[in-house]
């Protein structure tokens, strides 16, 4: 039977059960909050430690710097006291000032030299132009004199015999096969070491004898002004420090032949063509001309020009061969 006491017991049990469940929940919550608080505290502690270590490092660096500065200051002060007694040191070091002075002096000297060179160049240019004009007049007079003398002789009924030529141009037309020692030596003296090499030669008794010895291996004749000019301007190379250098500028000629009075290309052409007193120096300065094989080929190298070949003296006809080879 259901009684009052039984109902009271049931209520008590229910009450206790509900109360215990709430307590458990509260305990769990308190534990979680404690864990969170401990984590935050550990983080804060770590951050504090890091800050402290950084501060310590900074302080040590500052102290070291201060100490080094103090030492350097003391050293400089002692040096100043030793070197200068009652005098102030200059703000710029003395070595640097000297260096600047030296540089300024060098710069001024260089500018002066450049200006002098410019002035010299202007003077030399004018001189070259005046010389070229004089040479042009001289060549024209020579040509007119020849024509005049020829006309005068024809009027009287005579023949005009021009003066013996002083200049010859020699071209090697054969190779090295079967060359006798004597001929080889003559070709070496004439500086004709390769086929189709050309050289200017001053005509005298000795040089004519040499040309006769080497006649089967060379073609030679008397060049005119046009041939000389074209050869030097087109295929002219100078011997400068034992090297073959193209004559592209008058300064190259001036540097090497200034002592002989030759300062430009026109001077060089004039001395070669007229066979002047400085012919030897001018001719030695010129490297042997390296000509091309003649356009249209050669007739017969082994026979003389007089017999319809190519070897030997061809007088004025050398100019045609030069045109074909230049």
From TrEMBL:
GO terms for biological process: maturation of LSU-rRNA from tricistronic rRNA transcript (SSU-rRNA, 5.8S rRNA, LSU-rRNA). GO terms for molecular function: RNA binding; structural constituent of ribosome. Residues 168-218 form the Large ribosomal subunit protein uL30-like ferredoxin-like fold domain. PROSITE patterns: RIBOSOMAL_L30 (PS00634). Residues 9-40 have a biased composition (Basic and acidic residues). Residues 92-163 form the Large ribosomal subunit protein uL30 N-terminal eukaryotes domain. The keyword Ribosomal protein applies. Keywords: Acetylation, Cytoplasm, Repeat, Ribonucleoprotein, Ribosomal protein, RNA-binding. It holds the Pfam family Ribosomal_L30. Residues 1-87 are annotated as: Disordered. One of its GO terms (cellular component) is cytosolic large ribosomal subunit. Signal peptide: none annotated. Gene3D superfamilies: Ribosomal protein L30, ferredoxin-like fold domain (3.30.1390.20). It is found in: Cytoplasm. Residues 56-76 have a biased composition (Basic residues). CDD domains: Ribosomal_L7_archeal_euk. Its main location: cytoplasm. InterPro entries: Ribo_uL30_ferredoxin-like_sf, Ribosomal_uL30, Ribosomal_uL30_CS, Ribosomal_uL30_euk, Ribosomal_uL30_euk_arc, Ribosomal_uL30_ferredoxin-like, Ribosomal_uL30_N_euk. Component of the large ribosomal subunit. The ribosome is a large ribonucleoprotein complex responsible for the synthesis of proteins in the cell. Binds to G-rich structures in 28S rRNA and in mRNAs. Plays a regulatory role in the translation apparatus; inhibits cell-free translation of mRNAs. NCBIfam families: uL30_euk. Belongs to the universal ribosomal protein uL30 family. PANTHER family: 60S RIBOSOMAL PROTEIN L7, LARGE RIBOSOMAL SUBUNIT PROTEIN UL30. This is Large ribosomal subunit protein uL30. It comes from Bagarius yarrelli (Goonch).
